[in-house]
Amino acid sequence: MDIVNVMIIDEIHLLNDERGLVLECLVARAMMTSAKTQKPIRIVGLSATLPNYEDVAKFIGADGQGTFYFDSSYRPTPLKCGFYGIKNLGNADRANKIMNDIIYHELIRILKLGKQVIIFVHRRAETVSAAEELIDLIKANPKDQYLFDCENSHRIKKEVDQSRNEQVKKLFEFGFSVHNAGLLRKDRNLVEKMFMEGHIKVLCSTATLAWGVNLPAYAVMIKGTKMYDAQSGEYKDIGIFDVQQIFGRAGRPQFDKEGEAIILTINK
Description:
This protein is an alpha/beta fold. The chain folds into two domains: 6-69, no CATH class; 77-267, P-loop containing nucleotide triphosphate hydrolases (Rossmann fold, 3-Layer(aba) Sandwich), CATH 3.40.50. It has helices at residues 20-37, 53-59, 92-111, 124-140, 154-161, 166-172, 185-196, 208-212, 240-247, and strands spanning 6-9, 42-45, 79-87, 117-120, 176-179, 202-205, 219-223, 226-229, 234-237, 259-267. The strands form three sheets. The chain has a six-stranded parallel β-sheet, with helices on both faces.
């Protein structure tokens, strides 16, 4: 620490996470070292999802002229937000069916604009099941099937055939794919490449895509707002930071004049 002049903390809103204690200790140690050596250490905190930025700025000693806040007017593409609240009918399968119907009709509307969509779910297995359930709806409505067709080059088809993931190969034929931490790195790279090059229209993903990969789409959808917490053994609401990170994937400055973000939840 004696030779450190600058410490940059990316995603500093994680102070509010279980890992926040580690960040807090790092900041405290930097300040203690600075006081002991009488040599200033500049601390820079970065975040796209920090509501109480003034409190955090004060904590790291960057309040006043050292604080910079950029509101939504700095967003390169304006964002339209939609919300669907589904009444809790006491039947999970029925609620899931209603969600799928809503997502399907939104997909038809967006794909008619010639755009791509990322659907975010909260479990790895759900990325595949959500894609398969939507494909069943496509099969039941053959008049809409053309919207999901992609112009697939011989090169991409060959790469897909070489994939060791059966779901990636099967879903590709319908213009879909999946992205989650359970895929091999090679398959994740292939899926990201196919989406960026427009070989697939719809991508079903877990939140890992929102945090770790710069892969935007015209529209993003969040299917459900509850996720299972293994530590407590119960379902909890997803964090607002996760929602904001996912919404940040909507709108591609080089292609779109706006983006769309849609969230579906079950009302109590």
